[in-house]
Each structure stands twice: as structure tokens, then as C-alpha cells.
């Protein structure tokens, strides 16, 4: 494989390439703070089982069964990079 060339020839045109979003240190620290808030508030997402939630800091800014709709709702409110979490009724195992 040659570095710098798309593996898929259909992506030769730069307009077709997916946008690469780089995390900034500020975004990372905001998401870390959100995760800490979630850990210290167990059950806070229980009302949203089966949905996606968008969280900015310690505020749930949108929720819906569709991640696309949640993203659009958050962006309409001015939140461009909220933490998106799928809420499941079973605990998530992180290895």
C-alpha cells in the first residue's frame, strides 16, 4: 500500500473524502469532565434507554433513537462537538 493515496479509487477526488476531525485538547478535557460527571451520577441516563444522548459538559442537550437526529438537534442549539452516547439497558464492559 502506498502512503498518501486513497485505498479506494472512488475517493481520488478530494471532495469525496470524508472530513477528518481532529480532537483538540479542550474538546478532550470537556469530554473527560462529562465522563467524570456521568460516573459520579449513576442512573442519570436511565430515562433514555434505547436512545442516543448528546451531552455538553453536565447538560443533556438532545436525545433520540437516531444518532443523526441527535447530532442535528445538538448542532441547531450551537453544540458542534457534544459527547454522543448510546444508552443501553445492559452495562457496557470496557476492556
- Strand content range: 15-25%
Give Rg in angstroms. Answer: 17 Å
Distance between the termini: 31 Å
Per the principal axes of the C-alpha atoms, what is the gross shape?
A: flat
**Largest sheet data:** 3 strands, antiparallel
**Total beta strands:** 3
Helix percentage: 25-40%
Structural class: alpha+beta
Give me the number of helical elements. 2
Low-confidence stretches: 1-18
Described by its quaternary structure, the protein is single chain
Strand line-up of the largest beta sheet: 2-1-3
Summarize model confidence as the mean pLDDT. Answer: 77
* H/E element sequence: HEEHE
What order do the helices and strands come in, and which of them pair?
Blueprint: H1 25-40, E1 52-56, E2 59-64, H2 67-76, E3 83-86
Descriptive account of the structure:
The protein has a domain at 25-37 and 47-89. 27% of the residues lie in helices and 16% in strands. The chain has helices spanning 25-40, 67-76; strands at 52-56, 59-64, 83-86. Strand 1 (52-56) and strand 2 (59-64) form a beta hairpin. The longest helix is centred in the middle third of the chain and has 16 residues, at 25-40.
Key terms:
disordered N terminus; alpha+beta; 16% strand; single chain; three-stranded antiparallel beta sheet; flat; 95 residues
